[in-house]
Design brief:
This protein is an alpha/beta fold and 645 residues long. The protein contains 21 helices and 18 strands. The strands form four sheets. Strands 5-6-7-3-8-9 form a six-stranded mixed beta sheet, sandwiched between helices. A hairpin with a 2-residue loop joins strand 8 and strand 9 (235-239). Helix 2 (81-89) crosses helix 6 (164-178), helix 5 (137-147) crosses helix 6 (164-178) and helix 19 (553-597) runs antiparallel to helix 21. The chain is globular. The model is unreliable at 537-556 (pLDDT under 50).
């Protein structure tokens, strides 16, 4: 369908693409990944025909319809939502032409020579109208709008009445209804709540065309893709697998490259020692020249990407009392708009709680009340003994000092970290090199939010309240934050649309629905299963048992069974992982012994012994490759299960 050949693009001296090529088939399910700034959005825009490359070409099948959803906010015509959808899909224009044709037919006599032509034109327009789903369009539009979180009456509202996030949903609805042959989606889940994400995934699975998606949502990529295209340093690498497997394959490839680079380094040192030793011996001149030519022909192996092992532990204040947060009869209204009413729940020391709900349910409002930023309409929020609370939200970007440079702002946060560690962590938050001397005032909103999160991670706390902390993070930074929060011994209350992030961290879920709070004692996946069973199965009594945090004996038993199942899976994985790590260590030790032997002059003089050692070393390398791959798979499974409660 789309054949990309030798794309090249530069912005000034910066190379964005260099000889990028791939084929996008009829039913492709491709995830386009890469670090921030790698050029993913630019590549989508080239495929959509919005940007011209400097070289190469994009060949499309004849008549191919390509639909593109940008991640930037879109401006929509000031007309009712359904009318806009009709215009975008092409139904509105056909409706008007059908009406014109019908009026012309009604005014034409039976014997007129124009009659046959009008009838033919009407039949052609009607076929086209039917092909676009025109006869059932309003019902289809209603289903799509409902799936994306709109209320039934929203279809008649003017597009100008909606916020930027909801306008993006309208644009997405128009794109989905047009059903193009190729869907190009740039961060499609950015403005969706979890229920809308799940609906979108279901719709996309049924889509008959190709899909190319850029997304920082790991769960979305794993659920939707069958192929990963990684854009890195101007080159595109294809992985014929889903996202989780891609991560394993990429890490294995990196480790193989690191081993090869290490072998090359040793070989270079060995050659240089030989040259330095025999450079001035005429009897060895030919051998010296031969080895120098070997060095000239040897291409240095460069390992791209950040160094592994950037780790960080969030400083912790002394323990709080057992009850960290007590909420009693909490209500909030803005004028006539009641957000929620009569909320009651408690959060205890060390709990990791996810707060979920559809957009507009009041999650961010509740966090602002719990953090003391806003006052409730009624009810109380009580912090426990010795609680040291910190709050992060997208508005935190407004609290950084605009007159500072990035580095000055980073150093202004009290911390036990020295400057070297602080600078290394700042690099992990995507501020590095000379960029750290930029003024905070010139940063984008997302960069300021990222800097604010960096500062919060340095503070000594025992209760963190986080509202969408991963919004402006790339994959590696998100993993850094996730791992730091997993090790954090304090209490967590988190709002996030990143389902993988929530699943890894949360041990309890509070759902805001219909102005009330429902308590699910389990991780995020367990919450989804229970909610579906309770709401889909018509178990009204069971739903009442969860409401307002009243956990019954059966629910506690189910939560305990879930914890026991997870513990059992962890034990099974560790039963294989621990001896595997021992075998890897033994093989690595033996490999190092062989490498040391192969550097010994006496051994090198015995060609038979050298062959034996090389055969043994190659056997060990093959064994290590399989062992590393299995270790990655087991470690990833263990990570996905989270840490035990």
């Amino acid at each position: 369908m789309i054949d990309i050949k030798g794309l090249r693009l530069s912005f000034g001296e910066k190379v964005i693409f260099d000889d990028v090529g791939c084929l996008i088939g009829e039913r492709a399910r491709m995830g386009l990944v890469g670090n921030n700034g790698a050029g993913k959005t630019t590549l989508l825009r080239i495929l959509a025909g919005e940007v011209e490359p400097d070289g190469g070409k994009v060949e499309r099948s004849k008549g191919l319809r390509v639909g593109y959803l940008p991640q930037d906010l879109v401006e929509l015509e000031s007309i009712p939502v359904v009318d806009l959808l009709k215009e975008r899909v092409g139904v509105a224009g056909l409706e008007a032409r059908l009406r014109e044709t019908e009026l012309a037919l009604s005014a034409t006599n039976e014997g007129s020579r124009d009659l046959a032509g009008l009838l033919e034109e009407h039949a052609r327009l009607e076929r086209r109208f039917e092909h676009l789903g025109g006869f059932g369009f309003e019902a289809a539009a209603s289903r799509v709008l409902h799936g994306l979180g709109f209320a039934r009456e929203d279809g008649e509202r003017n597009c100008s009445e909606f916020s930027g996030g909801w306008k993006m949903r309208i644009a997405m609805a128009a794109l989905l209804l047009s059903a193009p042959d190729v869907l190009l989606l740039d961060e499609p889940t950015n403005h969706l709540d979890t229920e809308s994400m799940e609906w979108l995934e279901g719709w996309l699975r049924a889509h008959k065309g190709a899909i190319v998606a850029v997304s920082h949502d790991r769960r979305f990529l794993e659920n939707m893709t069958e192929q990963i295209a990684e854009l890195e340093h101007g080159h595109l690498t294809l992985y014929p697998c889903g996202y989780d497997r891609y991560l394993v394959e990429k890490e294995c490839a990196r480790e193989r490259l690191e081993r090869t680079a290490e072998e090359q380094r040793r070989r270079v040192e060995e050659i240089e020692r030989f040259v330095n030793r025999f450079r001035y011996k005429s009897s060895k001149a030919a051998q010296v020249q031969s080895r120098l030519k070997q060095l000239e022909k040897m291409d240095a192996i460069v390992i791209d990407g950040p160094e592994k092992g950037v780790r960080f532990r969030i400083p912790e204040a002394p323990d709080s009392g057992w009850e960290v947060l007590g909420v009693r009869g909490l209500s909030k209204s803005y004028g006539e708009n009641r957000v929620f009413e009569g909320l009651d729940f408690t959060v205890n020391r060390g709990e990791r709680v996810a707060l979920v709900g559809v957009n507009g349910a009041g999650k961010s409002t509740l966090l602002r009340l719990l953090s003391g930023v806003e006052a409730p309409t009624s009810g109380t929020v009580r912090l426990g003994h010795n609680v040291r609370r910190a709050f992060y939200s997208q508005e935190s970007a407004q609290n950084v000092n605009y007159s500072h440079t990035i580095w000055e702002e980073a150093r202004s946060a009290p911390s036990i970290l020295n400057d070297v560690s602080r600078r290394s962590l700042l690099g992990a938050f995507l501020f590095s090199g000379s960029d750290i001397h930029k003024s905070v005032s010139v940063l984008s909103g997302g960069e300021k939010a990222r800097l604010a999160l960096f500062k919060l991670m340095l503070a000594e706390t025992n209760f963190l309240i986080l509202d969408e902390p991963t919004n402006h993070l790339d994959r590696s930074t998100k993993e850094l934050v996730q791992n730091a929060l997993l090790q954090y011994g304090g209490t967590l209350l988190i709002v996030s649309h990143d389902r993988h992030f929530l699943d890894a961290l949360a041990e309890r879920v509070l759902e805001i629905r219909d102005g009330r709070v429902y308590d699910y004692p389990g991780n995020y996946s367990w919450f989804l299963e229970r909610r579906e069973a309770l709401l889909g199965g018509g178990c009204e009594g069971a739903t009442e048992n969860i409401r307002f945090g009243r956990s019954t004996r059966s629910i506690r038993r189910q939560a305990a069974e879930e914890r026991e199942r997870l513990d059992r899976e962890r034990r099974e994985i560790r039963k294989e992982l621990t001896p595997l790590e021992g075998r890897i260590e033994d093989m690595e030790t033996r490999r190092d012994e062989i490498d040391a032997a192969l550097s010994d002059a006496e051994v090198l003089a015995d060609s038979g012994r050298v062959r034996e050692l090389m055969v043994e070393r190659n056997t060990i390398e093959r064994g290590l490759e399989g062992a590393y791959r299995r270790w990655e798979e087991l470690s990833l499974r263990l990570e996905n299960l989270g840490t035990p409660a």
